[in-house]
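Protein chain data
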Amino acid sequence: MSLSHKKVKTKKSDAEIEEITGISREKHENRNDICNELPTGKMRIKNPHVDKMLFVDDAGRECRRNPDIFSSYHQPMSMPSALFCSLVDMLIFCVDFPVPNMKFISINEEDGTWSEVICNRYTGELIVDPRYFGTSNFCTDAPNGMKTGSLTTKEHVNYDVKPHEKYGSDYKHIAKGIPVGYYDGDIPHPVILHDPLGGPKAKYMSPHNDPNYNKKLGAPATEPELERRSPCLPLALVLVLLLVLVLLLTLVLILVLFGVEAVK
């Protein structure tokens, strides 16, 4: 699902919304139980020399990773902060501060609908918070979706985007047969990446997924996913980067002005 997490205020009844979109509230809120399929085992890049955004799971199913900037609504931070992080990471070569979550889509061969999963790039763990997790898409008119990663079609707007805006995000399932809250207890979160980045930014939702976890000594409680909402860049670094950008723009302006004077 794309666009906003926020429900758009509407005076229309559920019956009116269903007449407009063709999707009932029940079908919308249970969409993940209908057709959201998790990867089998874990995913890795299929061929890094050909396409670094095309992944494949252990059963051979292809999954298309979306660019980070198009996964901004699936981040544990405000949308403007996520967009800023992605832009800085993309435009400034010496800065490596990507948003924490990665978005993948894959076509469901049986009916042409789309599965969507979100995982943490540092831990490889599946995101299960309803505010950020992936939601299946009922559209079937995106033949190039696995090549472009884009589902911006008429059906996507009618069947997926509008129901999300009108009904909200009270989803009942994470994926097929997995209700929301299933991983709130002691059940470890699934790890769906073969090669997560790890490192100091790896904050595991399930300590058992941490390769350094020692069962004998125990491990300190990890920060819950719902509370990890800090921006991806420290404020001081953001200010420094903005200052650098302003100085660069000023320098360009000065050079342009001097060039104009020289011509005169």
About this structure: The two ends are 55 Å apart (CA to CA). The longest strand covers residues 51-57.
